[in-house]
User: Fold this.
Amino acid sequence: AIQTIMAMARTYMIHVGLRWNERGTDNLALWAFAVRHAMWTYNRLPNAISGLTPYELMTHQCTDHKDLRRSHVWGCPVYVLDPKIQDGGKIPKWKRRS
Assistant:
């Protein structure tokens, strides 16, 4: 399992370096985050033979895999929607800083 997780993290880092290199995302300081995301992904992917995930085997609970459907490609640029405008409200004007 460790070899698989490290290979997944290495693939994530290579993919980020090839796709979004201009944003400085190919930094080796992101290695720990890549390993953590690879571990999260590995624990939620079903086994080809049993159809169960390692997470399901440890917790004895069946999951619907909604968390995998909501996940993004690791390292891709994402934008967070301001809660003030997510319900269809107006975009607020710039606030003065001084």
Remarks:
- DSSP finds four helices and no strands in the chain.
- Residues 2-19 form the longest helix (18 residues).
